[in-house]
């Protein structure tokens, strides 16, 4: 599973132990001694998961998280928290954090949670890429092809489309073929699955 886990904690012992743990499980990680250092390095293209301590010397974990949100960094954030900080972590969850772990945690807990976060992030990235690809294909359609596509998505037959658009059935067939070719769909069902019903 690709991607880098970024560990942000001002305690060197925690950074070292987590870095060693992830390496022992075949996971790449990079450590940061402060929230400021991590934020200064943004944007990080390889960032698939962020492990962020709630309490740090300068910027706190939640403050770093707020700045990441403002920078539209979408990598999932897992907070490390002491018992007294659980309410803070719960608020971070409401704001969009992936999860939190209360110290002390066991090795399997944090590895499993990081793997889940990376899997979710990779799936979201793939979905985003697919949406961008579909949007780019839609942008290649002519206004008439867009009209035909919308009617295709309602399930209308070629004859019905021809009557509605006041054009020949053969012309509808040509436009329909171009729509499918440009969108990379084999038939109307594939097209509907690709673009959904929002374009009706």
TrEMBL record:
One annotated GO molecular function: DNA binding
Domain HTH luxR-type stretches: 134-199
Keyword Transcription applies: yes
UniProt keyword annotations, A-Z: DNA-binding, Phosphoprotein, Transcription, Transcription regulation
Pfam family, one: GerE
GO biological process, alphabetically ordered: phosphorelay signal transduction system; regulation of DNA-templated transcription
Residue intervals of the Response regulatory domain: 4-118
Keyword DNA-binding: yes
InterPro entries with a match to the protein in the record: CheY-like_superfamily, Sig_transdc_resp-reg_receiver, Tscrpt_reg_LuxR_C, WH-like_DNA-bd_sf
Protein name per Swiss-Prot or TrEMBL: DNA-binding response regulator
